[in-house]
Amino acid sequence: MKILFNAYATKSDIQELMGGGRWKKVSKVFDECKKLENDPFNLRPNKVPSHLVFKVLGLNYSFALRQYKEQTNAQSSKTAQLSN
Question: In the predicted model, what is the mean pLDDT of residues 58-78?
Answer without folding.
Answer: 89
